[in-house]
């Protein structure tokens, strides 16, 4: 069984990867598994979402860890940390 998650990218990630897309994943997948699936595409995805890169994630508009479980129809957003003054 697979699930479909709506992805959104913000700030510099949006510039590199686009606004967003739908991603099909095996049921029981986590936020970390979604990031890994995107990195496996190679190219700009691998670079933008590389391990060690500061990337935050939000699941259904709430900050989450990479261990958060995904469900069919969830919205998953990736964005760089924000700084300001």
TrEMBL record:
Keyword Nucleotide-binding: yes
Pfam family for this entry, one: ThiS
Assigned keywords, A-Z: Nucleotide-binding
SUPFAM superfamilies: MoaD/ThiS (SSF54285)
Gene3D superfamilies registered for this protein in UniProt: 3.10.20.30
Coiled coil location: none
Superkingdom: Bacteria
Signal peptide residues on this chain, from the entry's feature table: none
Family, similarity comment: Belongs to the MoaD family.
Protein name per Swiss-Prot or TrEMBL: Molybdopterin synthase sulfur carrier subunit
Lineage: Bacteria, Pseudomonadati, Pseudomonadota, Betaproteobacteria, Burkholderiales
């Amino acid at each position: 069984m697979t699930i479909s998650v709506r992805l959104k990218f913000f700030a510099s990630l949006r510039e590199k990867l686009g606004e967003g897309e739908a991603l099909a994943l095996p049921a029981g997948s986590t936020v970390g598994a979604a990031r890994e699936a995107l990195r496996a595409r190679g190219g700009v995805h691998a670079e933008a979402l590389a391990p060690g890169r500061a990337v935050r994630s939000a699941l259904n508009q709430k900050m989450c860890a990479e261990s958060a479980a995904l469900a069919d129809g969830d919205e998953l957003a990736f964005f760089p940390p924000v700084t300001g003054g």
